[in-house]
Amino acid sequence: MTTEHVDVLIVGAGLSGIGAAAHLVKDLPGTSYAVLERREASGGTWDLFRYPGIRSDSDMHTLGYRFRPWRGDVSLADGASILDYVRDTAREYGVDRHIRYGHRVVAAAWDSTTARWTVTAEVEGGTRMVTADFLWSCSGYYDYDRGYTPHFEGQDRFGGEVVHPQHWPDDLDCAGRRVVVIGSGATAVTLVPALARAGAAHVTMLQRSPTYIVSVPGRDAVKGRLTRLVGEDRSYAVTRWKNIAVQSALYRVSRRRPDLVRRVVRKTNVAQLPPGYAVDTHFRPAYDPWDQRMCLVPDGDLFAAIRDGSASVVTDRIVSFTETGLELESKERLEADVVVTATGLNLQLFGGAELSVDGEAVKPHETMAYRAMMLSGVPNFAFTVGYTNASWTLKADLVAEYVVRVLKRMRSTGTRTVVPVRDESVGEVPLMDLDAGYVQRVVHTLPRQGTVAPWSLKQSYLHDALAIRTARLDDGVLVWS
């Protein structure tokens, strides 16, 4: 069996993987690379999720790539537009010709004697091996096969349909039907107004506890005016930095003065809800702002659906399904024809692939993350995971820039191996500090972060943009050989 060899092997043809490959094309010409994609289409999240109203939960002028402006002034774009943008980027940089579809990476083994990775992928009819000098995981952080659904008592006796947004049926029609959406995160607050607009008889968002929900303009007025004055590229750069500054300021203020942010969010919610609405019951979280990710709604569409009566919010806990709906702890019964379990994701590192170094399995929880993009003791390896408090692509672009710097250094010096070596005196803390369920369920399995740089994770683009772009590669932590 012939084994293909490339300089860099990228796993995942979504937003991160296509961006990574485009960086190689434009910044490190002559690099041979391939992108292994488990599914039969590119786009990652934006091709997988097909539920009504699917859109970004970050503004597009920071979710778009730094090197390729997002055209227009739409702030929160629909999924189809984002998918087109990602695929257009792949075509523009020729990345689409390097994607190998139907390749599910199950194992990657590093051999120090050859200074190469051997990657095993399951393909139709068997397996395929690809070797690479450098391995770059861009497969995101959740399980594409299974969304998270908790056990619900009595679900088997429900006479209607139960669907998870990650697996939305193409033929599901909710028009004229009563829909209950279980959850209060970004997916739920997107689905509720979308289903109401699509003609559902009524949509109920059933939540155990409230989430911070903030209305934002659907279009960026500053971007629109700037584009008319100075053109698309310049207006994109200015708008991008404007939005980065606003995001960063909101996060910092939320952490330092949470009571102030609580009051501001509550005031804006009250202004958009009907008079006398029980805002403190349904829109006052028990946790501080940014302990979990805030939800953005374009032009207050969720609040508009509540005002016009096409949607409602119920804050309660489920006792069990009934034949016709749900029974709650308050003894209330919610009648439903369709129940949507917008209950979250199952977190999964590296697409589920097993890593090993010289025959010894890599246990992620025993490693420490270097700059939140490499693993201690794992040579010639990088991974891309975006921010939890800002747009994913902000971090993805920084990771790509840094990996290109590393690869240029290796090429110019003839270095074959680079590996972060952990200082055992550095203290450990969890990699992700969100209280979100999908994180807390598996936080013990994740790599750790350190208490000092370059092992610590700041969750700040402004900090990382300076630190990552100016960091010395000879920092005493990366070992080159």
Automatic annotation (TrEMBL):
<keyword id="KW-0285">Flavoprotein</keyword>
<dbReference type="InterPro" id="IPR036188">
    <property type="entry name" value="FAD/NAD-bd_sf"/>
</dbReference>
<dbReference type="Pfam" id="PF00743">
    <property type="entry name" value="FMO-like"/>
</dbReference>
<keyword id="KW-0274">FAD</keyword>
<dbReference type="InterPro" id="IPR020946">
    <property type="entry name" value="Flavin_mOase-like"/>
</dbReference>
<dbReference type="GO" id="GO:0050661">
    <property type="term" value="F:NADP binding"/>
</dbReference>
<dbReference type="GO" id="GO:0004499">
    <property type="term" value="F:N,N-dimethylaniline monooxygenase activity"/>
</dbReference>
<keyword id="KW-0560">Oxidoreductase</keyword>
<keyword id="KW-0503">Monooxygenase</keyword>
<dbReference type="InterPro" id="IPR051820">
    <property type="entry name" value="FAD-binding_MO"/>
</dbReference>
<comment type="similarity">
    <text>Belongs to the FAD-binding monooxygenase family.</text>
</comment>
<dbReference type="Pfam" id="PF13450">
    <property type="entry name" value="NAD_binding_8"/>
</dbReference>
<keyword id="KW-0521">NADP</keyword>
<protein>
    <submittedName>
        <fullName>NAD(P)/FAD-dependent oxidoreductase</fullName>
    </submittedName>
</protein>
<dbReference type="GO" id="GO:0050660">
    <property type="term" value="F:flavin adenine dinucleotide binding"/>
</dbReference>
